[in-house]
Amino acid sequence: MVGAETGDCWKTGLQEGGSTVFTDALVRAEVEASTEVALVRAESVAGVRAGVLSQLSCRPRWAATMELSAEYLREKLQRDLEAEHVEVEDTTPNRCASSFRVLVVSAKFEGKPLLQRHRLVNTCLAEELLHIHAFEQKTLTPEQWTREQQK
């Protein structure tokens, strides 16, 4: 059986944008039950939907239909989190897929631990985060922001 020699390399190849025809051949050689083949195909479709890079470009497939901008994210965060200050840096030029770094200052973060603050931001941008490869965030209360500016 091929599986003992190749391990899960077929999954890696598919997740990296490899040929589904070639991958299907490897899968069929590796598994005997048709239900397992169906499960692998479902995983591959989910991978494509999650933003697997196309073979022809370094940009995700959705990039042609949905361009996220730093300004759009800034306005949405400012509006939905009633933020006093929002900085959004598009770090995509340094990477292959869309990526952003944000700083959000909001009174809604008062009394909340870091995890809850990040969840508020993630909830606000839930739809957009499906199309963002890397997302770095810093969340501060107005008091923390004032102290940080004085440093």
From TrEMBL:
The keyword rRNA-binding does not apply. It holds the Pfam family BolA. It comes from the Eukaryota. It is found in: Cytoplasm; Nucleus. Belongs to the BolA/IbaG family. One of its GO terms (molecular function) is 2 iron, 2 sulfur cluster binding. Interacts with GLRX3; forms a heterotrimeric complex composed by two BOLA2 molecules and one GLRX3 molecule; linked by [2Fe-2S] clusters. It comes from Balaenoptera musculus. InterPro entries: BOL2 (IPR045115), BolA (IPR002634), BolA-like_sf (IPR036065). One of its GO terms (biological process) is intracellular iron ion homeostasis. This is BolA-like protein 2. Acts as a cytosolic iron-sulfur (Fe-S) cluster assembly factor that facilitates [2Fe-2S] cluster insertion into a subset of cytosolic proteins. Acts together with the monothiol glutaredoxin GLRX3. The lineage of its organism: Eukaryota, Metazoa, Chordata, Craniata, Vertebrata. One of its GO terms (cellular component) is nucleus. Keywords: Acetylation, Cytoplasm, Nucleus.
